[in-house]
From TrEMBL, chain A:
<feature type="domain" description="DUF3857">
    <location>
        <begin position="56"/>
        <end position="210"/>
    </location>
</feature>
<dbReference type="Pfam" id="PF12969">
    <property type="entry name" value="DUF3857"/>
</dbReference>
<dbReference type="InterPro" id="IPR024618">
    <property type="entry name" value="DUF3857"/>
</dbReference>
<protein>
    <submittedName>
        <fullName>DUF3857 domain-containing protein</fullName>
    </submittedName>
</protein>
<keyword id="KW-0732">Signal</keyword>
<feature type="signal peptide">
    <location>
        <begin position="1"/>
        <end position="18"/>
    </location>
</feature>
<dbReference type="Pfam" id="PF01841">
    <property type="entry name" value="Transglut_core"/>
</dbReference>
<dbReference type="InterPro" id="IPR002931">
    <property type="entry name" value="Transglutaminase-like"/>
</dbReference>
<feature type="domain" description="Transglutaminase-like">
    <location>
        <begin position="273"/>
        <end position="381"/>
    </location>
</feature>
TrEMBL record, chain B:
<feature type="domain" description="Transglutaminase-like">
    <location>
        <begin position="317"/>
        <end position="392"/>
    </location>
</feature>
<protein>
    <submittedName>
        <fullName>Transglutaminase</fullName>
    </submittedName>
</protein>
<feature type="signal peptide">
    <location>
        <begin position="1"/>
        <end position="18"/>
    </location>
</feature>
<keyword id="KW-0732">Signal</keyword>
<dbReference type="Pfam" id="PF01841">
    <property type="entry name" value="Transglut_core"/>
</dbReference>
<dbReference type="InterPro" id="IPR002931">
    <property type="entry name" value="Transglutaminase-like"/>
</dbReference>
Length: 631, 669
């Protein structure tokens, strides 16, 4: 009988809407800035047991142009546990007349192994259809059943930029008495209604207009309306769980997915102990072990069943010497444990855009794992999937965000290190010799720290060709650039990177009427000006700042003296400061100094233009030239 | 004497096997090597690659092909770790599928001066069902570190005995030793082709072979039929192809390169004919005539091309009363373009659906659309034929094979010329084809089996003409009007871009590419009139075009149209430079200088030429009162320049960029 109830329910859903999908019925306001209009997006979820969830959905999208095709979403991801009960798409023309029906068997079945993953059991069924006219409409219905109730589908009323929504409905119902939680975000500015009882919650949004992408704006999830749902008792790939807060959730992860997976062979234990036997400083021990892991393992991702969430055992990793983020973190944790250092498996959202684990709402989230090692009251972080990242270097992959630290006592939301603007430091020193024929030649030394270190330290594994490409792009504004010797010094302990590059370029100085013109900022021009943003709606967000200091000693050609030098300049704004000066310290030698602090921060939408003006000025000063005349 | 003979024998055995690389037998030198002896910055190297292809016969299933492979890979540094994972594609065709077996792997490392090995286990082998047509085996090796040597061997058996994967000799890491051997029974006649810049020598010899075949035989004697197993032997000869080569350099992608695979050393074997006992000699393709004929024999090509009934009525109505051939052709071309939408699938032959269904649904793959077009042309009395094409991403078809082509367009023969049509792209025009098609030569295949080469790259340069009329202001800002004409390929790509984005986004992009520009009064002409050039007009204001130093204004006379960077920055070039199509950019600029200023100096007019009239850059500038007129033309008469032209080309661009960067100086009166 269990099966029949939801089936009936789905049938009811099929018949309750027989809408007119004609393009002409779309309200004018929904067409603005849109490549597609979601006419109806409806999902209803019924949880009938801790390990049984029925999901039925119907999505109707009118595609306005080629770009809009990406919002059809006529696909179904599945793995071995899921059962897709029905799948169907119907195509309607501009007038709303049905022109084609695509049945389940006409959907293409393909493996859905994510990029960077060697193997997983995910698959996808997807529709292949090419429309010969725009607009057209796709109605896609799907019902499936899954035991993995740990992932109650969250709901986004808007799927992204340039898509509007006529009607969006979501309902979540629990028929087995399990308590559940829900969290609504960013509802204020949107016409969304909510209805909740103890065993059910439902939402309905109407006429949500399309949003336009804006440069340097906060992440979409921060302002778009969405709902998160989580059951207090759930199931994941054969494992039951219960949690209503991060402490309990972390406890579950620890007990069910981590505990006991740290066993190691006695030889390995001996080997590791031997490695650190003369070291007393705990930090040094960590470094030794971490480097051992980096030198002996590599990243290979295989995600099968519960293996998508449970690390492969330390013993396994030790044998094959590879693993994914979970496996390598757990392995490192086991090795550290052997030498008496406690560390904690930590789950996060990794990536250049800082995404937080929600401290106020506990649910299955995150896409990565790394390791937290508290030493003398300070947190050290170990990125175990990288063979070259130094101890405690987060970079843009994991900096400044809430992460979930798993301890034997439960989970705990902690924040990773935020690089202060001044910490992401670059110091460029150069000595340049200019000659009468217009060429320059010299030596450049660049020291980088913080986030700027992050952008450099992979240079060491680049081939000669890649290095040539990099510098010719980095100094793309210097025409006819030739590179001489390039050397690097990567100080992994101090987390500092030093580049030493010999450069030369013909025709750097240009001659006009017997005078020589050139730009004294040879090797560190910051020419990026953010795009114009018309009718800006959202804040300006600069996620990370940096500080550059430069000192270039320029030997001007013999027989010339400066006619004009740049006047000392100082720009002071809320977005940062910029300072340059150039001086003839002794005859024939100019010293150019520059200091540029770009601040991180959140600013109002009105500030965007001011910020752009600031960056324009910086670019202009960095390009500006001076004139030399014959003595 | 006996003793001596034995010794000799041993010695000779030793000589024979000295060079043989045996699976699992790795030398200490190989494991302890830290740098590749020839390419010092190689992250990894293929120390050894062995592939042996041979045929087997079995009475029930017929012929099958087996490939045994052995690879030995050296990992020098962490960048090379990707080479510790091997992926083997396995094809599935109908009920037939390629199978992998006998996967073995061993990783060798140097530990405390000793070679230590670790075997690959089952958990390092994965078979993925990619889709209906393809599976993939992924093999990843254990215990991989810097310095590891990996031995991997496997076997793939294939019932698809007529299809042989290409043999590749070059990768983006160096390859030390390659041994390839193919044993082809006399019943199969394969033709071999080599390609790439690096010459590969193939030796051919003949060997006899005998195989035992056991089969079931039915005895009809007596009441009940009895099945018994019998066996016989099959004697035949085999052609043995062998390649033994060494030290193949790595291959690196460069900017402005057509498909890099065109330059990669490889050998391809294609089945030319079969000659089975008691069966007639069967010929497959392998001359251009053969290709033309055999592709017409495919149902998904010839049969589809012959179908006309589904469109007759529509075409009759469309061309009723028209007598001029070109007019009819244009009507039909426009009709197909508007009716049909390309589903982004390539193919020189139709999908299972075929032209009729495609026509009904209004969408189809390349062959469906362009064969339909060809057949409509023919129906209307035009001399039209399919032109087989290999797209840029598919590589250059150097030799006559059917599977070398992955695309088809339509060609109408007129006098000494062929006019090409591609209806997959809405904005295409006769002889203006999408860039993907502009790949060397196509093959026009006629019904009668004759065929001829058709140059796909246009002879005439595509033009882009900019007219600017601008006023320079005292504060260094510039404002004015712009009119740009796009012809042929430039018109096609600009129309394509316009149809994919809304105007606002397009303009924002344009403003951003020109720096601090603001555009207003934007208008388009001939957006849909494909026979005419696309014309963009707008007004612009640009703040940052001038430099003000002291009381002088320095400004590039070409303003934002000046090229600022030489696209050729690298010191060396290995492969030809490919600009896709010949091109010409012209700028005609009129500038008014601010009142109260005079022209202190102007850049000099200048002309730069490439040898053999392959390109000309001309920069003409004159001043008259407060007016400056600049006339610049930049032409590349060829789409492709061999690598030995690189230095000349780089120099040509250098001079062009330098000239365009020169500034005129305005000073206060």
């Amino acid at each position: 009988m269990r099966v029949i109830v939801p089936l009936l329910l789905f049938l009811g859903l099929q018949f309750s809407f027989s809408q007119d999908y004609s393009y002409h019925n779309i309200p004018e306001e929904l067409l603005k800035n849109a490549d597609a209009v979601v006419r109806l997006d409806e999902m209803s979820i019924v949880v009938t047991a801790q390990d049984q969830m029925h999901i039925s959905s119907k999505r109707v999208v009118t595609v306005l142009n080629e770009q809009g095709n990406r919002y059809i979403h006529a696909f179904a991801f599945y793995d071995d546990n899921d059962k897709i009960n029905s799948l169907e798409a119907k195509i309607y023309n501009k007038q709303g007349e049905e022109v084609k029906k695509i049945k389940k068997r006409d959907f293409l079945d393909q493996s859905a192994v994510a990029g960077g993953t060697l193997y997983s059991d995910s698959r996808v069924l997807f529709m292949r259809y090419t429309s010969n006219e725009y607009p057209y409409t796709v109605e896609f219905t799907k019902t499936y059943t899954t035991p993995d109730t740990a992932f109650a589908p969250p709901w986004s009323f808007l799927d992204g930029y340039r898509v509007s929504v006529e009607k969006s409905k979501y309902s979540f119902k629990v028929e087995c008495g399990i308590p559940f939680r829900h969290k609504e975000s960013n509802f204020d500015a949107f016409p969304i209604e909510m209805d909740a009882t103890t065993n059910q919650v439902s939402y309905s949004g109407t006429n949500i207009k399309a949003l336009k992408r804006e440069p340097l704006s906060p992440p979409f999830a921060e302002f778009a309306p969405n709902v998160k749902i989580a059951l207090d008792r759930f199931h994941l790939e054969g494992v039951n769980g219960s949690a209503s807060n991060w402490k309990e959730f972390g406890k579950w992860i620890y007990d069910k997915l981590i505990l006991g997976r740290d066993q190691l062979a006695p030889e390995t234990i001996n080997k590791v102990r031997k490695l650190v036997k003369d070291i007393n400083d705990p930090y040094e021990k960590v470094r030794k072990i971490y480097e051992y892991v980096q030198d002996n393992t590599r990243y290979i991702s295989v995600q099968l069943g519960i293996g998508g969430w449970m690390p492969i055992s330390a013993e396994e990793v030790d044998r094959v010497k590879y693993g994914d983020c979970k496996g390598l973190s757990n392995y490192t944790m086991a090795l550290l444990n052997v030498v008496g250092i406690e560390s904690f498996y930590t789950v996060l959202h990794a990536g250049g855009q800082m995404r937080h684990m929600d401290p106020d709402f506990t649910s299955m989230e995150g896409n990565h794992a790394f390791l937290n090692v508290p030493i003398d009251g300070k947190d050290l972080w170990l990125e175990c999937t990288s063979q070259i990242t130094p101890v405690n270097h987060l970079g843009t992959f994991s900096d400044n965000r809430n992460v979930l630290k798993i301890t034997p006592n439960g989970g705990e939301i902690v924040k990773t290190h935020q690089y202060l603007d001044e910490e992401s430091y670059q110091h460029t020193k150069a000595e340049i010799f200019a000659s009468v024929n217009g060429s320059v030649k010299g030596n450049v030394e660049i020291l980088s720290k913080g986030i700027q270190y992050n952008q450099k330290f992979r240079h060491t594994i680049k081939s000669a060709l890649e290095k040539e490409e990099f510098y010719k792009d980095y100094w793309g504004y210097i025409n006819n650039l030739s590179l001489g010797e390039i050397t690097f010094k990567n100080d992994r302990e101090k987390i500092e990177f030093l580049e030493n590059v010999e450069i030369s370029a013909e025709g750097y100085l240009s001659e006009t009427d017997g005078k020589l013109l050139f730009s004294p900022n040879l090797v560190n021009r910051d020419l990026q000006v953010p795009e114009r943003s018309r009718n800006r709606k959202r804040d300006l967000l600069i996620s990370r700042g940096y500080l550059d200091e430069d000192e270039f000693v320029i030997h001007i050609p013999q027989g010339y003296k400066p006619e004009t030098l740049l006047p000392p300049t100082k720009l002071e704004t809320k977005f940062g400061s910029y300072e340059i000066s150039i001086e003839e310290t002794e005859q024939g030698i100019l010293v150019y100094k520059r200091r540029f602090l770009a601040k991180s921060g959140r600013y109002t939408k009105e500030d965007y233009k001011l910020y752009r003006d600031f960056r324009k000025q910086v670019a202009r000063y960095d390009n500006s030239r001076i004139i030399l005349t014959k003595i | 004497m006996k003793f001596k003979l034995f010794l000799l024998l041993l010695a000779s055995v030793h000589v024979i096997f000295a060079n043989e690389v045996k699976f699992g037998k790795v030398s200490k030198e190989e494991v302890s090597e830290t740098v590749h002896p020839i390419e010092a910055d190689a992250a990894a190297a293929i120390l050894y690659k062995k592939e042996w292809v041979y045929y087997e016969y079995n009475y029930e299933n017929g012929w099958s092909m087996t490939k045994e492979a052995h690879y030995r890979v050296k990992i020098y540094n962490k960048q090379g770790f990707d080479w510790a994972t091997l992926q083997v594609p396995l094809y599935v065709s109908g009920g037939d599928e390629e199978r992998i077996s006998g996967v073995k792997g061993v990783t060798f490392n140097l530990v405390d001066g000793k070679v230590v090995s670790e075997k690959l286990k089952k958990d390092g082998i994965f078979i993925e069902e990619v889709n209906k047509y393809r599976r993939k085996a992924s093999i990843t090796m254990p215990e991989v570190k810097e310095g590891s040597v990996l031995d991997i061997e496997y076997k793939v058996s294939s019932p698809l005995f007529w299809y042989m994967d290409d043999f590749w000799f070059q990768y983006d890491i160096p390859v030390n030793v390659v041994d390839i051997r193919l044993d082809i029974p006399q019943y199969f006649i394969f033709k071999k082709y080599s390609k790439g810049f690096y010459p590969i020598d193939v030796r051919e010899s003949r060997e006899n072979r005998s195989i035992n075949v056991s089969y079931r035989s039915q005895d009809q004697s007596g009441y009940m039929a009895r099945t018994s197993r019998k066996s016989g032997s099959l004697d035949f000869y085999e052609t043995v192809y062998q390649v033994n080569t060494q030290n193949l350099p790595s291959l690196k992608e460069e900017a402005f390169t057509n498909n890099i695979d065109n330059y990669r050393a490889a050998i391809k074997f294609e089945l030319a004919a079969t000659q089975f006992p008691n069966s007639p000699y069967k010929n497959y393709s392998l001359s251009w005539e053969g290709v033309a004929k055999s592709i017409y024999d495919f149902n998904s090509f010839g049969t589809e091309l012959d179908k006309t009934r589904y469109f007759e009525e529509d075409i009759d109505n469309l061309i009723a009363g028209k007598t001029d051939n070109m007019e009819k052709a244009m009507l039909i071309f426009e009709f197909v373009k508007s009716k049909m939408t390309w589903d982004d699938y390539s193919g020189a032959t139709c999908s299972e659906d075929g032209v009729k269904k495609a026509y009904k649904e209004g969408s189809g793959n390349v062959a469906e659309i362009n064969l339909m077009l060809t057949s409509m042309f023919r129906y209307a009395g035009l001399n039209a034929n399919p032109v087989l094409v290999s797209t840029r991403s598919n590589g250059i078809p150097l030799f006559p094979t059917t599977d070398g082509f992955n695309y088809v367009v339509s060609g109408i023969e007129v006098q000494d010329d062929v006019i090409l049509f591609d209806a997959t792209e809405k904005n295409s025009y006769p002889d203006v084809l999408p860039n993907r098609v502009l790949n060397w030569m196509g093959r026009l295949v006629r019904k009668d089996g004759s065929s001829s080469q058709v140059n796909l790259i246009p002879d005439q340069p595509s033009r882009e003409i900019h007219y600017l009329n601008a006023k320079i202001n005292e504060d260094g800002s510039v404002e004015g009007k712009s009119r740009t004409q796009y012809f042929n390929q430039f018109a096609l790509s600009t129309r394509g871009k316009l149809s994919k984005t809304d105007e606002e986004t397009y303009l924002e992009e344009m403003e951003n590419t020109h720096g601090e520009m603001e555009i207003s009064s934007y208008a388009l002409q001939n957006e849909k009139e494909l026979s005419k050039p696309l014309i963009e007009t707008c007004e612009f204001a640009n703040e940052g075009q001038c430099e003000i130093m002291g009381d002088k204004i320095y400004v590039k006379p070409m303003l934002f149209l000046a090229e600022t960077q030489n696209p050729f920055k690298m010191e060396k070039r290995e492969y030809p430079v490919d600009f896709i199509f010949p091109r010409q950019k012209k700028c005609m600029i009129g500038l008014t200088i601010p009142e109260g200023y005079k022209i202190e100096s102007l850049p000099e007019s200048s002309v730069v030429q490439l040898p053999e009239k392959l390109g000309t850059f001309s920069y003409q500038i004159v001043a008259q009162g407060s007016q400056v007129n600049v006339n610049v033309s930049m032409q590349l008469a060829s789409a492709i320049f061999p690598a030995n032209y690189y230095d000349i080309l780089k120099e040509y661009y250098k001079k062009m960029v330098e000239k365009e960067a020169e500034k005129m100086v305005l000073s206060k009166i």
